[in-house]
Amino acid sequence: MTLLATHAPATTPGLRIERLGPALGAVIHGIDLASIDEIAAFDIRRALLAHKVLFFRDQHGFDDDAQVRLGNLLGDLTPGHPVAGNHERSEIYNIDSSDPEFSFSDVWHTDVTFMKKPPAISILRAVTLPPYGGDTSWADSQAAYDSLSAPFKALADQLLAVHDGNREWGAFLKKNGGHEWEGEIVTELPAVEHPVVRVHPETGRRGLFVNPGFTSHVSGVSDAESRAILDALYAHLTQPEHTIRHRWAPGDVGIWDNRATSHYANRDYTNTRVMHRVTVRGDEPRGVDGLRAH
Description:
6 helices; Double-stranded beta-helix; metal-binding; Taurine dioxygenase; alpha+beta; three-stranded antiparallel beta sheet; disordered N terminus
């Protein structure tokens, strides 16, 4: 585990961080994402560990090529999605509300947790926005864990939960086939287990790693107990003090730590909304005292 000094001063000239809350969210000023170098990318990644969600405004020169380049500066890019894919560049997931196969994200979720190694970082670019609506909210899973009671922390620390992509993507996969993920073509979506509490591999902080979008149940407990545990954790995770909400504007780019957050895309618009996303490869989630799936 590599622990970084997440609040150390930035080394990129002109970079300024405008905090949106005590732990979650920041607007980064003074950086042109289309032309950043490795030093600026390091500053961005360090800021991401501290604030979990970063926003960059007026990035009008930031196109598909620049988005892929930025992803590769922050880590190794994954394919756009293990199942869905409708963009000429395999690294880009085109989220287009006018697509007949569009899958709505109006449920709290963490990206691709139904795979053994979910992405570490997601980068989302606003391409076409409706005149109103279509905001995205994020929840801070680490702040949520920190504010749990001691007995509930002790319970959550020792639990595994099952994540199942078939509820969202099973029919799509059967109809359209899948894509490459971790060097293999996805032909099925076997359920996977992850710790309910994930220890962040770079900061060592603990955070809740369950989400209504893909977590089906807690392992080793009854159905009633699983529902009670997950309902309590979801309600706690999405309390207002653990969340921020972003209203997208043309030229906006958002970057978030997929290991420390969940998010929700509002479906409160009637016009087309198009967003392009790339994701940075992650590792297999580990829990408290090294807890991991069997």
